[in-house]
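Question: does this match?
>
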Amino acid sequence: MKLVLTEAALDDLRSIRAYTLEPWGEEQEERYLRQLWSRFESLRSDPFRHRLREDLFPGCRIAAEGRHVILFRCSPEVLEVVRVLHSAMDFKRQLPPGV
């Protein structure tokens, strides 16, 4: 299964990186981003076991990693990471238009 990240998801990772780097340093920033990427890879092996959240967008599933929630959708060929949001955020307000 191919892994695809939307531009919004890539922006989320950049923001997480910057936010983590400032107070906790490079080692923690690298560790947390490795954990997120590892989670993306694990989602590819069994994406359909994760909670369905059709109220957010069609086919949306969610998976937690640390203090973040990965919003994704999948088909047999592609796992698309739509957003990587802090768990305290209002998910609906953070979705890109037309998701």
About this structure: The mean pLDDT is 93.
